[in-house]
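Sequence in, structure out. Go.
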Amino acid sequence: MAHGQRTILRGLAVILRRRPLLSSAFLATAALTFIFGLKAIFYLTYWTDHRQKPIASWMSINHIARVWKVDADALNGALQISDSAMNGVSIARIAQEKGEPVQVIIKQIKSVIEQEHGEPPS
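Output:
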C-alpha cells in the first residue's frame, strides 16, 4: 500500500474514533442513498419494460392505468364499474363478476387506451 493511501486510512480511523455519531450518521446516509438509488433504477426499468407487455387477464385496472398512463376512472367508465374497489381486482375476476368473456373486457380497455393515446396497445 502506498504512503498516501495509508495516510488517508489513518485519517478516516481518527475521524471514526473522534466523531462516532457523525461518522455513523454519514454511513447511514450513504447506505440509504445507495438503497434508494437502486430502488429508483429498479422502478424505472420495471415500468419501462412493462409498457411493452400485452394486456393480460391477471392485470388490474390500477396496473393498466399506471402502465399505459390512462385515467383509472376512464377505464371504470368504459367497463361500467361504479365501485373503485374493483381497481385492484384482476381483469379475469371483473369478467367473472360481470359474466362476460375476458377478451371483451380487454377489448374495452384497449379502446380506452387507443382513445387517449391515438394508438392501440399491444
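Check: The mean pLDDT is 86. DSSP finds six helices and no strands in the chain.
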